[in-house]
Amino acid sequence: MQLLLIHSDYIEYEVKKSTPVAEKIEESFKKGRLEEALTAFIAVEKVDESNVEGAISKAVEEIKNVASQVKAENIMVYPYAHLSSDLSSPKAGVAVLKGIEEALSGEFTVKRAPFGWYKAFKISCKGHPLSELSRSIVPDEVASGSESSSCLAPVKEEVVSEALKAESTAKSYWHVLTPDGTLHDATNFDFTGHENLGKFVDYEISKKRAVEKAPPHVELMRRLEIADYEPGSDSGNMRYYPKGRLMKSLLENYVLEESAKVGAMEVETPLMYDMNHPTLKKYLDRFPARQYSIESDKRQLFLRFAACFGQFLMNHDMTISYKNLPLKMVEMTRYSFRKEQRGELVGLRRLRAFTMPDMHSLCADMDNAISQFDEQYNMCISVLDKIGIKVDDFEVAIRFTRDFYNENKDFITNLAKTVDKPVLIEMWDTRFFYFVLKFEFNFVDALAKASALSTVQIDVENAERYDINYIDSNGNANKPVILHCSPSGAIERCIYGLLEKEAMKAEEGGVPILPLWLSPTQVRVIPIAEKHMDYALKVSEQLNCRVDIDDRDDTVGKKIREAGREWIPYVVVVGDSEVENGTINVTIRAESQPKSPVKVEMTSEELNARISSEVQGMPYKGLCLAKMLSQRPKFI
């Protein structure tokens, strides 16, 4: 169960519309208000179903504890599904909420908002240090001798790789490397001017991965109709609405195009593999990831968490000459699967099913691998920059063995010089994994949680493990050094990073906006009246981009506000003056401030030229929804 506890001057709600799982309520239950209240926003989760009474008891204990601290006598129990991606069944959810209400009613004045209804609510948070608190509650397991234990399915023991076990016990030496080549102790480094790096260092060293509340992008991904949780699937498996699918498709195409420019050949490999295949079994033990496992035809299979398996098996069967090196292959894995810890799953930040561009390069030797590593490091900077995540938006982590560092100090220092800022170093005395060198570009979000985007690793094991060879100029077989590269990191994480970045910008008083080439609607045309519709259609046909028309029966002001809420980059309003002059009145979001929109009168040709220059060289797809807004369904 997830709890968000807000001490408020008041909380009031009004139901608007029922959902298919709404509980039946009387008229008096459709509105509610409490003064001087502790509001408990609650998301009941699947894990709570194993011990409903235990979940209720623990929740009541937490709520009572906070109520006593803030001296609250009134409590609002408010169902709030958005706190979790792993919701319980509606029946269990209602049972838990009613149980909490009943248990609290003896000591407090309690109101409960109805379950399964869309509701409007207003709340006035008091703003003192204890006025906003979050709690994660996991009920104790049902005892093996209890009545309900007989209906619980046996749980198969999770398969944990040896590398993952090693990672949890590995001795890490943490440093900050400055561009002048100095290694500083990370715990004593002065992060003044590099506060974001300080947050990242704290996150890495503390290893606190669990999320206690939803980061801003979760609300944005739903409001912008990009993606949402899928209650009918496993946690960390999302649904993507047309706008989200368009954004993903554009990102996928862009990363594949950039990979092709550096000579990578696109391939496709299976999603599942035999866990007992002798070569794959050894690799599983060397990769720090948890697997989804399934059974089929009496064989134990696992779902891939990267494209390595298929590409390396393919490399094994190929005839490769030194003339082919460096040999590069890339796959857009829709999907890769990792059984991430449940408490770490939130929105698009960390998923169990994700889209990973995975490129592998076979290099003749370590010198060639280091040269390719450097090229791909710079490629990743460029890829993220075009996506909209700049060097100042991410923090660099470089991880290696001490021996590798001592042999390649100048090369590693140059990586810090390239980004011209301090970077985090993790060093090991012993190599625990298959790589000797790895970097990641990490985005730090509004909750100070970090997520890796681009990465490259130098692999010194798997050519031997998979028996991958190339023939040198003397006709001898040699083992290549392999690079693993994801130019952007998971596609979903790119969207997460963009949304979090813009949420933080808005918090600082800026105007949030997506890169133009990724915006589902690039231009919205708003006719002032019905008589201007023909001209609006004409303008839309003159524009060479994703353009839609707000033909709904609303006021112009409401249409403009709605376009702002959707982050539309260019909003074109047409009326009598524009029809008469053959021009358009354009609000340019990228140049506007919250209360100072920038409006420019121009021609359709001039707007075309402006848009063309902004999206030059980037992939393009047409509208993913009906052109007329009146014809579009609502997904949220």
TrEMBL record:
Its cofactor is Zn(2+). It comes from Methanolobus mangrovi. Zn(2+) binds at C308, H360, H484. Its EC number is 6.1.1.3. This is Threonine--tRNA ligase. One of its GO terms (cellular component) is cytoplasm. Binds 1 zinc ion per subunit. One of its GO terms (molecular function) is threonine-tRNA ligase activity. It is found in: Cytoplasm. It comes from the Archaea. One of its GO terms (biological process) is threonyl-tRNA aminoacylation. Its main location: cytoplasm. InterPro entries: aa-tRNA-synt_IIb (IPR002314), aa-tRNA-synth_II (IPR006195), aa-tRNA-synth_II/BPL/LPL (IPR045864), Anticodon-bd (IPR004154), Anticodon-bd_dom_sf (IPR036621), DTD-like_sf (IPR023509), Thr-tRNA-ligase_IIa (IPR002320), Threonyl-tRNA_syn_edit_dom_arc (IPR015011). The gene is thrS. Belongs to the class-II aminoacyl-tRNA synthetase family. Archaea-specific ThrRS editing domain subfamily. Residues 216-512 form the Aminoacyl-transfer RNA synthetases class-II family profile domain. Keywords: Aminoacyl-tRNA synthetase, ATP-binding, Cytoplasm, Ligase, Metal-binding, Nucleotide-binding, Protein biosynthesis, RNA-binding, tRNA-binding, Zinc. PROSITE patterns: AA_TRNA_LIGASE_II. Signal peptide: none annotated. Pfam families: HGTP_anticodon (PF03129), tRNA-synt_2b (PF00587), tRNA-Thr_ED (PF08915). Homodimer. It catalyses: tRNA(Thr) + L-threonine + ATP = L-threonyl-tRNA(Thr) + AMP + diphosphate + H(+).
